[in-house]
Amino acid sequence: MVLTSRFGFRETLWVLLGIVFFFVGSSAQAAEDKEKKDLPDRAISLFSEYTGVVVSQGESVSLDLTVADNGRHDENVHLTMSPVPKGWKALLKTYSFGITGIHVNSEKSKSVTLRLEPDDTVQPGKYEFTVKAETEDRKLSSEATVTVNVEAKVQVQKSKDININTSYPVLTGPPDAKFEFSLEVENKLDKDTLFNLVGHGPENWDVNFKPAYEDKFISSLRLKANQSQTVAVEVKPFPLAPPGEYPISVRVSSPEAKGEVELKVVLTGTQKLEAGTSNGLLSLNALAGQEANLSIYVKNSGSAPLNNIRFLSFKPENWTVTFKPEGIDSLGQGDMKQVEVTVKPSAEALVGDYSVVLNVEAEKAAKNLELRVTVKASTAWGWIGIGIIVLVMLGLVGLFVRLGRR
Prior knowledge:
Layout: H1 2-35, E1 44-48, E2 52-56, E3 61-69, E4 75-81, E5 88-94, E6 97-98, E7 101-104, E8 109-118, E9 125-135, E10 141-151, E11 162-165, E12 170-173, E13 179-187, E14 193-200, E15 206-211, E16 220-223, E17 228-236, E18 244-253, E19 258-267, E20 273-276, E21 283-287, E22 292-300, E23 306-314, E24 320-324, E25 327-331, E26 336-344, E27 352-361, E28 366-376, H2 379-404
Parallel strand pairs: 2-10, 12-19, 21-28
Antiparallel strand pairs: 1-3, 3-8, 4-7, 4-9, 5-6, 5-8, 9-10, 11-13, 13-17, 14-16, 14-18, 15-17, 18-19, 20-22, 22-26, 23-25, 23-27, 24-26, 27-28
């Protein structure tokens, strides 16, 4: 009879322990589910890495557009174009065929090519092309606009003894890029001639000459009678040069002949955005249902102004995240501003670590900060928990004593 009573007590103890482990496991699973990345239900965007390009009159343009699905569901996206400027032919294509729509999976992106072809009537000037992306149910849409600056062809000085030709007299890019022009020099003299190569650019700019497909620099070029050869002109801008147009003058000369050509570099300026905390830590402690504060900085580390800076957050369900200020109209080169972030977990949030993503986004630059928020139990609940544990232990001891006496 005593053995039977002891066996029953052990069974009871194992059942109680099983119940405790079940609830602990359920709580851990719930906390793990809360930590998963919380994406918006649906979100799409359409953008081009280059929103403005410069070409010579008569040149075609090919640009890649990116269609991104930032939501939790796959989307069929229709692509349309606003009325195209007169004299231009515009086509959205991939590989060798045109397209009007594209399927994008959740958290993925795909690229399409925007092909722009001018006819002979297109004159120098600015032309805008707008592409619209729209979901199948027309509830979401996004637009991307590309500006094409058409410039008149550079008139190359020619003489009866030398010709200098270039297909791309205007190149565009940021100040930290290297620009390489290609010149074809033709010796029209009836004898072999040594030509000197001289390039002039803005102050603190480097202008050098190289043979085609070679890395060594040269300062002269020997051509046989009626022979032509391609020469590369490498231009390296001054790193702190502001956005704008910069002329590059190139002269090819010998005692018998001289030719000149004017090239142009268009610096677009770089848009770079930095964001973070003063101590580099991206963690925060909070209590369920109570606000916790964090300061972050936003800095313009590029060479162009940052405009219309917005703040977004991706957070667990029923959490709130607010920013003060809610946005920044403009941030000049090198400027920095402090932003106060307030995070309020849900009142039902379980104890554990959660991920909150802060998104700082300007017109052409963005930065994501992944913040780890640790939700802790309040002191009152700690004492309540201790009391419950003590009561459970007293109950188990009492049960053990009672069954042990039988």
